[in-house]
Design a protein that fits this description.
Shape of chain A: globular
Number of helices of chain B: 10
Number of strands of chain B: 18
Helix content of chain A: over 70%
Distance between the termini of chain B: 24 Å
Oligomer: heterodimer
CATH superfamily of the largest domain in chain B: P-loop containing nucleotide triphosphate hydrolases
Strand content of chain B: 25-35%
Structural class of chain A: mainly alpha
Strand order of the largest sheet of chain B: 5-6-7-3-8-9
Helix content of chain B: 25-40%
Shape of chain B: elongated
CATH class of the largest domain in chain B: Alpha Beta
Distance between the termini of chain A: 22 Å
């Protein structure tokens, strides 16, 4: 396992070119091309703004403008959930490579995670524009935590992606279970409602064991709440360590199942 | 001699997918059988205890029928799958021409795919940059290299895949039946490339059905059958023993299809006669000769009970070599004496073209008497047909064409030839040249 992990560094050229290929291929042939990476989150934000200011105005105290608050959580969530659902399919879709070419299989789920990370980064300028439009500026010193949150999420998502992709080869149902599970997980995470609501606080134990709670809250504190410093950093670092362990466990599982891929996909 | 590839007592089991295996995670969880079901319940050996060594710089051919484990052996050498038991050792960089263009993405251009495919096969960006022109020229795709790969024809796709894989510059090249990728010209280029590899003392492991290629190119050959190594060593000898085995198999197959055809036609004819005696088939043998549907009809006053082909050693056979003698022996039984009879034989090729047809009437033999169990033999001194599968008509009828027993295309035999000539008939021939025309001695 250790030598395989070391190999992972050797594959960075392969990983980066595959990520580039995925990004290029995704919009190849469309008129707006790469602009879609901006247009998609922009449209999403416009719709949310319309719905939550005009159709059913959300007036929860402390999270105004609400659509900005929500968007700070939804952007990283989209990265997370798309990564997992794509990873679940990645080994099966790349079956040709695994069966016919000597190819490091773990590259495939990792490419899914990284491709979606790039989409996440491309969504950020839209968020920035809206923050400027609403004159709602984050505290500059809080922004220093942003790379940390991204790093923790990357580690956490990759760990889960490895597990999901390896198991999905043997249990094809995981794809369908996963999409439902992700919907449930989305609503069980304080993304469209603030974690400090009394109705949320009373179940704080439940929310505390949800790793994505801490990621979402960290992003919200970094990008949206500008009244004080980031108070959630202990949880964030704690989950950084937890994700590291989870990554090792996920990689171990992936490595154990590796030899079965060529036959099972 | 240093070994480049070394397989020692290698076995590979594949799991058989039967209905009993869990279908879903849910059922696996409910029945608590995940661990049990992940253990192979039923396996079959794709390779059983195979050992062979390929010395560095040599070209090694693997032959065998479909499903004999050739590709599994190649995948084991490539490291794509792991052996169930035994060890596989390979020295040096491997490039496997197993599935060409396996990693191509249809939406992006040929150029981008060359880079990504090259990286997948273990080249660095710089190395690909240096070889890029060579790759594109080899694939003959210069004007299309910027187009998305999805617009390529399958030949273009394969050529590009081949070009990238061959320019990885491996120490060990694994080739799985990929020479069928292009037209004649491209195949020659591939063969030239292989020859260049040999000159540069690289090792090639070649899996192919083209025995010709093995004989011409390989220093050694291995014959696999049902996962077992049947023979290895000198290619000529290995191919010889393989062909003998193949002929035995073909014999059995032809024997069983012939038996089935005869029984089937007999039943049909019987049923037809019982149903309506007036539906006898038209009795004009010359018009029937050219419409090729198999069957059996006739009044059966004289019945053909057995038809056997004999080879040059007078052994019953279904496989013959071009130019060898062949005899068709017909056994008959006449339930009552007949005085008007004609024996006929016709040979047809697989397309239904009549290669030759004759009968005793055409050859001006005047019938006199036939009674009880009888035998007729049609002996061919030299079977001058090209390679292929042939069907035979055997008939006995009256001089006016009224059939006693007509066996239409019920018997099949195969003609084998080492020469790949074309057509139907191979006239006995030889070439001669003026002294200023010379040929190289056969290698």
């Amino acid at each position: 396992m250790r030598s395989n992990l070391a190999n992972l560094l050797r594959y960075r050229g392969l990983i980066s070119s595959l990520v580039a290929r995925e990004l290029k291929a995704r919009y190849r042939g469309s008129v707006f091309g790469f602009l879609w990476s901006f247009i998609n989150p922009l449209l999403l934000l416009i719709i949310y703004s319309f719905v939550f200011t005009t159709v059913m105005p959300n007036t929860t105290e402390g999270v105004q403008p609400y659509q900005l608050f929500m968007f700070c959580g939804i952007l990283p969530w989209t990265w997370f959930s798309s990564s997992l659902s794509e990873s679940a399919n990645s080994l099966i879709a790349g079956g040709n490579l695994i069966k016919k070419v000597l190819f490091p299989a773990e590259v495939l789920p990792i490419v899914s995670v990284l491709t979606n990370m790039v989409h996440f980064f491309l969504g950020l300028p839209i968020l920035v524009v809206f923050l400027l439009v609403y004159r709602h500026y984050p505290r500059p010193e809080n922004l220093l935590w942003f790379p940390v949150a991204v790093a923790v999420q990357l580690l956490f998502t990759t760990a889960l992606a490895l597990i999901v992709s390896a198991l999905a080869v043997h249990f094809r149902d995981i794809k369908d279970i996963l999409s439902n599970l992700l919907t449930l997980w989305f609503f069980a995470t304080p993304i469209i409602y603030p974690w400090f609501q009394p109705s949320v606080r009373q179940f704080h134990l439940f929310f505390d064991i949800n790793p994505f709670t801490h990621l979402a809250v960290s992003y919200q504190e970094i990008l949206f709440f500008n009244q004080g410093p980031v108070g959630h950093w202990k949880w964030l670092l704690g989950w950084g360590v937890g994700s590291g362990l989870l990554f090792l466990a996920g990689y171990w599982l992936f490595d154990r199942l590796r030899d079965s891929f060529a036959e099972a996909v | 001699m240093t070994p480049a590839i070394e397989l020692t007592n290698v076995s590979k089991m594949y799991r058989k997918y039967s209905g009993k295996r869990f279908a879903t995670l849910k059922s696996a969880l409910l029945q608590r059988s995940i661990l049990r079901d992940l253990q192979p319940s039923e396996t079959f050996p794709a390779l059983a205890d195979v050992s062979f060594t390929v010395t560095k710089g040599s070209t090694y051919g693997v032959i065998g029928r479909n499903g004999s484990g050739k590709s599994t052996a190649l995948k084991l050498v490539a490291g794509i799958t792991k052996p169930t038991s035994g060890t596989v050792r390979v020295q040096g960089r491997i490039s496997a021409l197993i599935e060409l263009g396996a990693g191509f993405h249809p939406e992006i251009s040929g150029r981008e795919n060359v880079f990504i495919n090259g990286i997948m096969l273990g080249l660095s960006k710089r190395e690909i940059q240096n070889r890029f022109d060579e790759i594109v020229d080899f694939a003959e795709l210069r004007e299309f290299i910027e187009a998305p790969v999805k617009t390529y024809s399958s030949g273009m796709y394969m050529r590009l895949g081949f070009a990238v894989a061959i320019h990885v510059d491996p120490d060990v090249l694994l080739v799985d039946e990929v020479l069928a990728v292009g037209d004649e010209g491209f195949t020659h280029k591939c063969l030239d490339k292989f020859a260049e590899f040999r000159r540069r003392n690289k090792t090639i492991l070649l899996v192919t059905h083209s025995l010709n290629l093995v004989e011409r190119f390989c220093d050694e050959a291995l014959w696999l059958d049902a996962g077992r190594a049947m023979d290895h060593g000198d290619p000529k000898r290995v191919i010889g023993s393989y062909l003998t085995k193949v002929e035995e198999g073909e014999e059995q197959l032809l024997a069983s299809t012939t038996a089935k055809a005869v029984i089937g036609a007999g039943n049909d004819a019987q049923a037809a006669r019982h149903a309506d005696p007036t539906t006898e088939r038209p009795a004009d043998p010359t018009s029937n000769m050219f419409e090729a549907t198999e069957g059996r009809w006739g009044s059966r006053e004289v019945e053909i009970t057995n038809v056997t082909f004999f080879d040059k050693d007078e052994q019953p056979s279904f496989v013959f070599h071009s130019g060898e003698p062949m005899a068709i022996r017909v056994k008959l039984r006449a339930s009552q004496p007949v005085h008007d009879f004609v024996f006929g034989v016709g040979l047809f090729n697989a397309e239904g073209v009549c290669c030759y047809g004759t009968n005793t009437y055409l050859e001006e033999m005047n019938p006199q008497h036939l009674d009880g169990d009888a035998e007729a033999t049609f002996a061919i001194d030299s079977l001058d047909l090209v390679e292929g599968t042939y069907k035979v008509d055997v008939a006995i009828h009256k001089r006016d064409g009224f059939p006693y027993d007509y066996h239409r295309l019920l018997y099949t035999f195969r003609v084998k030839s080492r020469v790949r000539d074309v057509g139907i008939y191979r006239p006995r021939h030889r070439w001669s040249f003026s002294p200023n025309v010379t040929f190289k001695a056969p290698s």
